[in-house]
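User: I'm writing a tutorial on reading structure tokens. Could you give me a worked example: one chain, its sequence, then its tokens, then a sentence or two explaining what the tokens reveal?
Assistant: Sure. Here is the example chain.
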Amino acid sequence: MLRCCLACLVMLAFFIASGCGEDAAKNAEADGAASDVAVAAVGGVRVRLVVPLEAPEIGVAAAAALAGDAGEVMIRRGVPSGGLDSVGFALVGDGLLRVLPYEGEQATRFVIELRVAGNVLARAETAVVIVRDLEPDRVVDALWVPRDRAVALVDGQGAALMVAVASGATSTPLDGARLLIAGGAPGLEPCGAETPTAFVDTAHVVATSGLHIDSVIDLVDARAFHGAAALAGGRVALLGGYLAKGGEVGVSAGVEIVVPHEGRSEGASFSLAQARARFAVVADAERIVLVGGDNGGAPGSAGTVELWQATSGTLATATLTRRRVAPYAALLTDPASERKLLFVVGGRAGSGADSSALADGEVYEVRPDALLFAGTIPSTTPVVGDAAWTAIPAALAIVRAGGHSVGAPVAQVQLFDAATGTWQQRTPLFVARSCMASSLIDGEWWLIGGAGDAGAAVAVDRVVIGAQSTQGVLTAGRRGGEILPGPGPTLLLSGGVAEDGTPLGLAMYWPSSI
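And here are its predicted structure tokens:
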């Protein structure tokens, strides 16, 4: 009922605004907007602005602004890689904003802002659309996103795009506005070590900016805690993971290739050299490096690094100095020698719930068809589990943040400098926590949520490489999940769990710090 009411609210807001007669037309003309709605409906774009379930007050404010009572709505338009220019719009009878097209054919981006008392209260951005002069108007959806609130992605009717993204799923960007979300294990904690018993057998192609699901693809094998890597031609390789076959769960060496634009998935020509789940994966063009993981062996058995290629299979393998389940890995280029170096750090010594955390690491040189051991990385102090890791390519460095030591969360941040071979202390986290969503996006390291002393954390840390860090606070706690680039200055949050353990789906987040 709530969802339906909110969907009605947003449509009602625009009907009210578009039904204000001469006053609305005068306000539109005063703002430079195109008030003549009788123009032929070809070659334009109609934008449906969707109110988030978590912020119904945005719909009320938008209705007031469009009716000219308070605030204003502004639209800017441009090509994806260029600047934005202000553009007029018309309020049309079906509750949409209509923007006139460019001349000819253009890839177009629209950014809409809701301003109240001179401040931006919320923003929305459409996906890239192709507009031609003589074709009918396109209708695109755009979600109002308020500051400092993670809002669920919903379609034009107010229904959540994905209610939950299961732990162990992979979220792979396909282009600037779509994701492939594949597999997963429902019901598991995001940072646990349990072996799954239930699996998701589909992959969703989600248009996050356009707010719709392009397709749902049946997987060859339902899998979780696998790896995923983008390949040429818009394909995605799903590698290894836990699978259930014949009523038993096991670790797989199988690979399948998802072809999103064709809505299908098929078995790959080549399997992995070793079955593995909960491993790290980094990609180098068509080559994929798989590191460590649970291979179903004894806790003391050694794991491997594998260099794999979709067109020829395994190119090379190397044995790790110790078994590492769920490690962090980064592929960096040494500026002095131009060698490609694989840094491997952290993880757990085994796959059981009581396996000990690891805080040391090792380095390998990655050649076209060989993996050469290049040295070790000393352990951090204290040894922590479920920390966040990232790499700083320009500095040839690895950074660790947070985690837990003897069950208690820590706020410590340390940087490993490859030039000196030592760990160095950095500014600590805003709040001590582990199991954070973490991602390096355009030189900014985001750490969102996590498990703190008092449950799921609401803290946000934005670590700008080479500049001052900033902190923020979410409106609700969350732990686990992934962070991906969103449209414009927003971030996409995929998966994780809420403070009460409820699985989370897809959300868009616009921090006030950017």
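What the tokens reveal: Helices lie at 2-18, 21-30, 57-66. The radius of gyration is 24 Å.
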